[in-house]
Design a protein that fits this description.
Layout lengths: L7 E4 L2 E4 L6 H5 L8 E2 L6 E2 L12 E4 L2 E5 L10 E3 L15 H4 L17 H11 L18 E10 L3 H12 L4 E4 L12 E3 L2 E6 L10 E7 L3 E12 L3 E3 L12 E3 H7 L11 E4 L3 H10 L3 E5 L6 H10 L3 E2 L2 E7 L6 E6 L5 E5 L2 E4 L3 E3 L2 H6 L3 E4 L4 E4 L12 E3 L9 H15 L20 H11 L8 E3 L4 E2 H9 L5 H8 L12 H12 L3 H4 L13 H5 L13
Parallel strand pairs: 1-7, 8-9, 8-13, 9-10, 13-26, 15-22, 16-17, 16-22, 17-18
Antiparallel strand pairs: 1-2, 3-4, 5-6, 5-7, 11-12, 12-13, 14-23, 19-20, 20-21, 24-25, 27-28
Bound molecules: FE2/S2 (inorganic) cluster (FES).
Amino acid sequence: MASPPRSTVRFGSRRLPISPGRSLLEALWNGRLPILQRSIRYHRPRAPFCGVGQCTQCLVRVNGVPNVRACRYVPGDGDVVETENAWPSPNHDVLGALDLLLPGGIDTLRGFRRPAFLTPLYHQVVRRLSGYGRIADRPGGIEPPAARRIETEVAVLGTGIAGAAALSTLAEHGIASVGIDTSPIAAVRPGVAMLSGTTVAFLPPPRPEVDRPWRLIAVEGRRRGVDVRARSVIIATGGYDAGLWFAGSDRPGVVTAEGALAFTEPNRAPFFRRAVVFGGGERAAEILDRCGPQVDAVVAPGSVSPELTEKASALEVPLYPRTLLMAAIGRRRVRGVRLRSRADGAEFSLETDAVILAHRRLPHPQLYFQAGAEMEWRNAGGAYYPKLGRGTATSQPGLFGAGEGAGFVGTAAAEASGTAAAMQALGEEPPSLANLGRVDAIEPNEIEGYYRQLFAGRRPKGKWIVCPCEDVMLTEIEEAHERGYRGIEVIKRYTGVGSGLCQGRYCLPDTLLLLARLEQRRPTEVGYITQRPPVTPLPLSAFAGLPDESEPTGAAR
Ligand code: FES
């Protein structure tokens, strides 16, 4: 019997096979990290970086819709996939020649003002030359699908360890709940309504005195809105691996630990033959567990944990504690790294074709900000976390925080906090969380001291891209400071840092530390940007499909 024809996507002149439920990135994978785009402004080659839908380095155009994350998109048969931001292709981008003519890049934000009637034409031309790509083929022509509504007792945002523990506890008590996760392949939990591949934003409830107090718009598959009403919300959005600033940090081959884990799934050979891992703790040890034979060296910003030392010595991997990562060597891809000892300033290089950043975890705080929860700065994490009162209760009634995003460290703490949040949502007394691992509020932040030393010395040549989405350079932030701009919100508006599609995940945490040092203020005094929903960019059509507010909030539909 003839086997059924395989589903494929069209990519240029080729047809690439796809597998059910697997990401588009898998289909585009070519044995090594594919270069899928060029950066805007400087046309720098970019390859997937995070593997979990947080960065903007795997964007492609699918069926005429721009900026689709290949690592998150599950393709369908016949999808037409194109690269964007480069001409004729990201591998050979002719527009890159402009960088030789205009080494300072094209200023797409300011510049041309008069005569005013030519401004739109000017912007059209410079934006195309800068690699901004094309807008959607049918802007405004998309009929908004009607949103459906879910009414539930508890909405759990994030279904990782903490979210899963909360959902299990709620299911055990027979409480209606819905789990919502951005991953398109979140595990289905028996007896629990799940919305996967979905991002959410808090909306003000239309009639708070009648409706369930929490209202969220969840958007499935970037299109269809789901109007979620819940008595309680548990935020368990977790954390992510941070980026790092060094010359050439945006080179293909530099990936986060999450990226390394995603790109080296057990069924896939690693994209690198040799890697340098940057980090001195648990996360770096995890990478050694998964990719040990390919790891050539572990470079740590500070000291190295006993667990990591033991693993590295078993694998005979050399350790470089208290070392600055100064530069990635290589023009199109990483070929090596330049390092400097923090102890004696000695510089040396290592050959490698991957740099895995496993030095720092950051929380996802956006939904807490949006929900109006009181936040606090915790020094050891170098980030904002929700201020928790009893157990997992935030300052907002009916809103609970669990897991890494709420400052709980480690698997056991994530699980226990998820269970506690579910009990509190049920109105029960939570178990004590006193002995669980928590991000310390006082302890100094390791990366703060690291950057202080890095910026005090001579910097190697090369582009220090601090915001890979918008190609903002470190010197632009420093110049903005010299010109008298103060505070992160102002610096964001002036330089564009943090205004890209990753919504500041990979640039703002470090920008905050830099500004605190330059302005000689505490990070909290430098402020934080206003968090505007949604956390992941969505088409307006999803919101346009929301039901009319005058409709009664009856049964779920
Ligand atoms: S690699 Fe897909 S968003 Fe980062």
